[in-house]
């Protein structure tokens, strides 16, 4: 995005925000889904992200390139807040009397996925990462931001992005490694799926 569009956004130009939404709504949605693993929550995050972008428009720098890192930074913060609110809601529901069974939608979500078993393994591994590591992984690996753009999105130094991403990749490789069968050694070719390696993406 060019400087002129940044200035139009800062000025509250509705057409500029329409262009912004058309260009980046899918990117924000994908980022939110990768952080939450839930389609419906990701859709909510998209709406809230663009509402916050409108509210925070005057904080956008006039000079610069693509506004994608700025939007993904907002989406990351919205996701944090949404997940905190969801945890509070879940805790409140758990305190209510259990007169009737609450419907579980997890199976419906799983039915929409091509490979539920693989997704479950990945999500289990991702759940073992710290939040900051998941966020950097989502920005750099899945959303394709470079270190500088990810640092801008998160408001942290570039070195912090590098170290978080390195730790995240190391931990994922460890957690995605299949468990050893009795008598099997690491590196045994009988293992069907090897550990995730940086060069195998």
SSE topology sketch:
Elements: H1 3-10, H2 14-36, H3 39-55, H4 68-94, H5 106-111, H6 116-127, H7 131-142, H8 147-154, H9 158-176
Helix pairs in contact: 2-3, 2-4, 2-7, 3-4, 4-8, 6-9, 7-9, 8-9
Overall body shape: globular
The end-to-end span amounts to 28 Å
Largest sheet: none
Helical/strand content category: mainly alpha
Please tally the helical runs, counting DSSP H or I stretches of 4 or more residues: 9
Helix-strand topology string: HHHHHHHHH
Q: Helicity level, as a percent range?
A: 55-70%
How confident is the prediction overall: mean pLDDT?
78
Runs with pLDDT <50, length 5+?
A: 188-201
Strand content: under 5%
Number of β-strand runs = 0
Radius of gyration: 20 Å
């Amino acid at each position: 995005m060019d400087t002129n569009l940044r200035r139009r956004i800062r000025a509250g130009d509705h057409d500029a925000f329409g262009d912004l939404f058309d260009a980046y709504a899918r990117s924000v949605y994908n980022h939110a889904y990768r952080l939450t693993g839930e389609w419906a929550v990701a859709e909510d995050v998209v709406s809230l992200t663009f509402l916050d972008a409108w509210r925070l428009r005057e904080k956008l720098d006039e000079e610069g390139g693509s506004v994608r890192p700025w939007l993904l930074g907002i989406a990351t913060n919205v996701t944090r807040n949404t997940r905190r609110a969801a945890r509070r809601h879940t805790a409140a529901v758990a305190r209510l009397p259990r007169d009737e069974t609450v419907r579980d939608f997890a199976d419906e979500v799983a039915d929409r996925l091509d490979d539920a078993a693989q997704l479950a393994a990945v999500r289990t591994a991702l759940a073992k990462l710290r939040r900051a590591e998941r966020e950097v992984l989502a920005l750099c690996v899945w959303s394709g931001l470079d270190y500088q753009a990810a640092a801008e999105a998160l408001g942290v130094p570039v070195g912090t992005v590098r170290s978080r991403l390195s730790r995240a990749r190391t931990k994922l490789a460890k957690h995605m490694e299949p468990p050893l069968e009795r008598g099997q050694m690491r590196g045994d070719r009988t293992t069907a799926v090897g550990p995730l390696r940086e060069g195998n993406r």
